[in-house]
Amino acid sequence: MSTLLLSPVERDYITKGIEKGIRADGRDRLDWRHLQIRQSIISQANGSARCRLGNLGFGTDILVGIKAEIGQYTQGDSNNPSSQKIVCNVECSPSAMQEFEGRGADEVNLELSQLLDRLLNGPQCGIDFDQLCIIPKQAYWVLYVDALVLDYDGNPIDALMMTTRAALADTRLPKVVVESITDENGVLQQEFEVVDDPQAAEPLKGRDNIPLTVTLYQIGGNYVVDTGLQEELCTKARLTVSVNPAGEICGIQKSHTKSGFAPSALPEMLKVSQKQASVLFTKLENELAKSSNDNQMDVDDGDSFEPDTGSTFLVPF
Amino acid sequence: MNTGDRRRVNGPERSVAPISVGQENEDLAKKIKQDIVNDNKRQCGRNLNQPRPLYLKTGLVSEANGSAYYEQDKIRVACAVYGPRPIKKSGAGGSAGTNISGATSTSIAESTHRAVFTCDFKYSAFSCSWRKSHMKDSDEKEIAMAISQALCPSIRLELYPKSSIDMFITVIESDGRNSTIAAAINCASAALANAGIEMYDMVISTSIGLFDSKWVIDCPQVEEDQSDSSILIALMPSANEITQLIQQGKTQVDQVQEAIELCTAVGIKLYAAANQFLSNSLNKN
Amino acid sequence: MDIDNIEKVKQESALLVTPGYLITQDPEFMRGHGTFAEDSAIYSSVSGVVERINKLISVRPFKQRYQGEIGDIIVGRITEVGSKRWKVDVNSRQDAVLLLSSINLPGGIQRRKSESDELQMRTFFSEGDLVFAEVQNYFNDGALSLHTRSIQYGKLRNGTIVKVFPKLVPRSRSHFHSLPCGVDVVMGVNGYIWVSKHVPQSTVEANAEEIYSNKNEKISTQERETIARVCNCITLLDRLFIKITDTSVIYTYEASLGHAAKEILNHDIAADLADQVKARLNDH
Fold first, then answer.
1. What sign results for the dihedral spanned by CA atoms B127, B130, B131, B137?
2. Out of B100, B149, B228, whose CB is closest to A108?
3. pLDDT at A174 over 60
4. Which stretches does the entry tag as region Disordered (chain B) (predicted)?
C-alpha cells in the first residue's frame, strides 16, 4: 500500500514547488520526461509500439499491439462507417504496481479503455474508415487495439495515446481481393480473399492525423503536464485534451473527484494543451526517426555476443 | 439449454425496430441536420438553446436517506442515496481501489480523512431502443464514474470521515446518451440535497451537440446521432466551478469556449428551476 | 566450474556467481549467508559476489530487499495506526513496528505515556507520514522494532524522498549529512533517502514542541532547485549502481553544476557524470 501514500508534508512540498514553478525533480510545469519509443516489436501483431515516459530506464511503460481481424456485418449494426471498427482494451498489468492486483486495476482499465475507444472510433480519429470496409454491409476489418501498462509512474493517458499512434502508424493491413460473381438467380455475390503476402500489406490511410492527448493535472492552483506518481497523488482535478496535428480538438475529458475547474481558466488550459500537443508531435516524430536509425545500426552490428532477438526493446542502462 | 437468467423473461439478445426502408431513414436523419444548419429549426420545435422542460420531485423512496425523480420530456431518471453510513468492509462488492489516475474509489487509507462516495448507474432493460442486459456493461460503469467525478467536488466529504455515501441511479427511460447522463447528474444532486448531506453547491449538468458550426442544447437521440461533436458539462453555478467536462468528436478551441458559455447560461436557468422544485418540496413538508 | 582453489578467490577482486553455482567442495569451509551446502559442497543461493572471511564463505547479493540489523538508521513510512503501535513500511519483508512507548512525546522527554496519548496517536504519526528512526530490536519473524528516542529522529519535513537499492547505501557511522550545498540528507540503510532543506540543529532543539508538526518551513526557489539537484544526483547514482555515500553525492553534485538540475537524468549527461564520479572515487 505504501507506494500510494504521501505525508501531508510531501504533499505540501510538491504543491508549493509547483506554485513556485519548480517541481520535485527540477522540471518546470510544462516540461516532459524523457520519451523513448520503438515500433514493430511484436512480430505476431499487425502493428505494435512500446513507449516509455521516464528517466534512466524507469517510468511509465506502455505496450500496444494491434491485430486486424475480419468482422461480419450483422443486422442492426449502425450504418455509420466509423462505428465500432476499432476495439480498444487497456490492461494495467499487476506486475506494474501492487495495487493493480486482482480487481484493483478495474477502474483504471475501464477509464483508459473507454477514453481510447472514444478517441479512436469516429471521424476525429483521422484514420480513413473506408479502407477498413471490405464489402459494404458484409465484411469489414476490425482493428483490435490492446494496450498493456507494464510499468506505472504517472501520466498513463498521454503515454497511451503516443504508443497507440505509433502502433497504428506501424500497422499494415493485409491486402484483400474482392471478386464479384453473379449466381444462378442473377444476384450479384461478392467474395473476398486475403492475400498472404506480407509485402502486399498496406499501411493505414490517414495515420498521420491520429490525435495525441495532453493531460493537465491541477495541483494547488496551478497545472502541470506529465506527472510522476507522487505528483499524481496530489492531483485535485485532471483535464485531458486530445488534439490532432491540425490543432483541432478531438476530445476533452475531465477526471478526478476532488475538485473542478474555474470556467475562466478553461480557455487558457485548452490553448496550453494545444501548444503542448504540437510539442509532443515533434518529440514523437524525432524519437521515431531516431529509433528507426538505431534499428538500422543494430542490423549492421552482426558480430555482437548478445543474442539478437531483433525486436528487443533496448533500454539504456 | 437456457443460458440466460432463468428468473427473468429473456428477450432476444438485441432487438431492432422493424424498419427496412433504410434509405428513407437516412434521408430523415439528414433532414434533421439540414433543418438545424440552414433554418435553425428543430424537430421538437425548440429553439437551439432551449432545453427540454424539466420536472423534479424529491423524497419518493421511503427507505433511502434521500431520493429524487427527474423528468425531461422522454427522459426519466430515479435515484436514491444512502448514507453517510459506515463503510462496508471490502470484499462485499466494493473494491479496495486505488486513487491514482482519476479512479473514483478512495483508498482505504484516505477514507480515514474523508467519506467514500460510490455511484451505481443502471439503464433499465427497456430504457433504450434495444434491450439492455441486466448485467452492467462497461459503458454504464464509465457513466457511473463520470457522474461521481461530477458530484464529488460538490460534497463536503471531509465532514464524514470513515463513512460512505452510496448513490443508486436508475434510468427508467432515456433519449440521447449525453442528455441522459446530464439528467442523471441533476437528479443525483437533488437527491443528495434531499438527504441533507452537506454540499458546497448543487451540481447542474447540460449537454450540447454541434451541427456544422451551430451548437444545439439538450439533443434527443435522433439529433445526437447526427451531431458532429458533443459536450457534456456539469457545473456548480454559485461556486463557479466546472466539475465535469467530456467532449467527443472534432471541434475548434473557440467552439469549445462558445459551447461552455452556452451551457453555463442554460445551466443557470436549469439551476433556478431545480431550486424552485426543491424549495417547493420543502414548503409542502 | 569448480573453484577449489580459494586462494584464487582471494586474488581476484570479485568472483561473481549465480544461484546454484558450485563454490567449493573443500569440506574445511563453512557456509555463510547466501549459500547452501549439499554433500559437503557449498553452492551459491543468490547472484552476487563471493566473500570469504577465514573459513566462512558467504555470497553478498547485488539486489535484495532490506534486511534489518540492530542499530540501523532507517527512513520508513507509516502504513497503519494500531493500538499503542504504528506499522511502518521499511522496504523489508515485514512491516516494522514502532511502539508508542518508543517515541519521544512533545513536552518533556521523560513524560509517562498516558491514556490520552493512546487516543491521539494520529497527532504524532498518521498514515503516510515519514519517520526517521533507529532499529531497536527484531522479532522472530523478521519484523523490526523501531525507536525514535533522540532529538534528531522523528517526523521528516521540508523535503522529498528518493528510493534506491538498499544495498547501495552502506552502513556507516553517520547517516545524517548536512551537505555543503545547504541540503540535509538522511540516508536510510533501507534504501529510502530523505533530502530536505537544511535546518540548523539549534533551531530543531529550540522548537522541540513542533517535532510532530505537519507544516513545512518556507523553502525558497533556490533551495528547491538544490534539493531537486541532489535528488536527481542520488537517482543517477542508484540507476548506475554506484555506492551512495555523502562523498559520492557531493562529487556528483559538483560534477553536475554545469547542467540544469532537470537535465541531470538525461541519458548522455548521466553517463558522462557517472564516469567523472567513478574516476574521482577511484582516485581516493
1. negative
2. B100
3. yes
4. 1-23
